[in-house]
Design brief:
Elements: H1 4-10, H2 17-21, H3 26-47, E1 63-73, E2 76-85, H4 105-114, H5 119-130, H6 136-144, H7 146-154, E3 161-176, E4 179-191, E5 197-205, H8 210-222, E6 227-233, H9 239-246, E7 251-254, H10 256-264, H11 269-283, H12 288-302, H13 307-315, H14 322-325, H15 328-335, H16 339-354, H17 360-374, H18 385-396
Parallel strand pairs: 3-6, 6-7
Antiparallel strand pairs: 1-2, 3-4, 4-5
Helix pairs in contact: 4-17, 5-6, 8-9, 10-13, 11-12, 12-13, 15-18, 16-17
Amino acid sequence: MISNEILDELLKNYKEPADLLGQEGILKQLSTALYKRALEGEMLDHLGYNKHERKLKPDDNARNGYSQKTIQGEFGKAIIDIPRDRKGEFEPKIIEKGQVRVGDLDHKIISLYARGMSTRDIEAQLKEMYGVDVSPTLISSVTDQVMDEVKQWQNRPLDSVYPIVYMDCLVIKVRENARVINKSLYLALGINMQGNKELLGMWISTNEGSKFWLNVLTEIQNRGVKDIFIGCVDGLIGFPKAIESVYPKTSVQLCIVHMVRNSVSFVSWRDRKELCHDLKSIYSSATEEEAQLSLQCFCEKWDEKYPSISKSWKNNWAYIIPFFEFPQEIRKAIYTTNAIESINSSLRKVIKRQQIFPSDDAAFKMVYLAIRNFSQKWTMPIKDWKPALNRFGIIYGDRLYA
């Protein structure tokens, strides 16, 4: 711990924040001095004797002056004298050969990028906060380092069994061949045996389609997933067949959250609360028969004003009714988790800031970093997971621990 006497000495001429944080402030001077002192200490450790002391043997290695290097950190730019030795064997640790950024600068660049800031926004932010000049090219270079991590993550082995997997996609804008086009960002979110959320992977394609989802499911299978009990999907035509072709035992359940969200998109704000209450009477029914009766009541009340809503529910009824076969504990795990919508909501904020991605890799980097940020909160199982797991054990038996 630094003593008060040292602090008093450092701050004896302090009058305003610029004296501490400015371009020639105490923080920059102190940082530069500490780096220089640390480098001298590393050279001492390397050679085994102090400066101006005699060598133990005539052929021992020796100091050979300094080379200057310009480094960047939170304190701005600074010129550091790097000690050299005659044999060229000295390898600095605190500022490695080829390193030009020190401290937490790379982490700050990646953190700002993960929040959806463009390279030029990051450039302006770092200039304003730290007086550091970083080019868009440098920022791209720093964030490109994440791609190796992304590839390892995307190809990592997965668990053999996931009781629930949500599959969805978001639309993003990507610049390609001098044009801006819409692409689909596919996401597969699993609830593992411990009840924790785990993003299994992400993929980008020109259009959302069941054929591409078939490729996604095949990749997941090749990475070790032998069984999925319940696959929650949106209303894409052909999607259930894609799942059934790879995982024939999987129960395909149309995502109730998607159904409700799509339904209310047709509804005025004045009617939304009442209509949502009536929709809830459908999907919260105890049995399929009760749900059909609730749907009929919904039709009688709302069809004249919003006929497309009941039509959508009727057209998708075959993939809604599996929900009523599950006991309450599993229903609660499927619906109240609302996991994929939570991710989508967070990602939409990031995507909205970026607006247009310069490439697929840029989209991958930003989305991966954003997911890495908020997945750090996924430390606890979803609510009431134990009762749901017990029910899974009864229903699926030996498949639970395949």
